[in-house]
Amino acid sequence: MKRIGIVLAVAVTAAGCATMAADTDYGKAALDLMKADFKSKGPATLDRIVNQDEAQRLCSEYPTERPKEVAEKIEAEQLKLVKYPADGKYLGKWQEGEKIAQNGRGMQSSDKVGSPNGGNCYACHQITKEEISFGNIGPSLYQYGKLRGQSEEILKYTWAKIYNAQAFSACSNMPRFGHKGILDEKQLKDVMALLLDPASPANK
Ligand code: HEC
């Protein structure tokens, strides 16, 4: 973890309000604070913030820009963790996928443990023309299937992207839906259909 020395520490000490010594390990201090103040409740468990996996650790170490080798290492390792559908079928029902994309609930302290999560895709993506309330952190997915088709490569790429977004963009803002067990295999198939089924309103 990086140590940040503070040049102004002497002046601050002189002013009599220094609570942290110069050369404080702020990463550790922040983690200690979260461990002390945050409490697990229901499905919102503390291990989500205190137990970082290797990808999260590297993303914290390089929060804005990271060396190319670091990004490539994260992506290669995350791609290896993708589990493809056991029966080789990628598409479920787009109607169910739309409900999952609309649903922003799940994994919050007020949710029941074990209740199904939503995907909250609209928080970051445009998907259909009918839904006019959407975020734009992610690219528009309107006409995703119409523009890309349904080749084996596209099915595999789209599955892997939704399963583990970091397999293609290290430190992505997009949740790792399959990898983190946010959505199960059936739900993943349903959101796949929302994007790829020609009958889906996403492709009209
Ligand atoms: C918190 C924001 C966020 C959420 C929620 C989110 N995404 Fe994304 N998504 C992104 C971003 C940002 C990208 C651009 C690439 C990257 O940074 O990973 C992206 C990229 C994608 C891509 C690749 C697009 C392309 O042109 O190759 C697909 C497919 C996708 N998202 C599907 C989904 C689906 C389906 C859901 C819901 C289950 C979802 N996303 C939820 C932020 C999000």
Automatic annotation (TrEMBL):
Keyword ATP-binding annotated: no
Signal peptide: 1-21
Pfam families hit by this protein: Cytochrom_C
Keyword Signal tagged: yes
Segments forming domain Cytochrome c: 101-199
Database matches in InterPro entries: Cyt_c-like_dom (IPR009056), Cyt_c-like_dom_sf (IPR036909), Thiosulf_SoxX (IPR030999), Thiosulf_SoxX_II (IPR016823)
Keywords: Heme, Iron, Metal-binding, Signal
GO terms for MF: electron transfer activity; heme binding; metal ion binding
NCBIfam families recorded: thiosulf_SoxX (TIGR04485)
Official protein name in the record: Sulfur oxidation c-type cytochrome SoxX
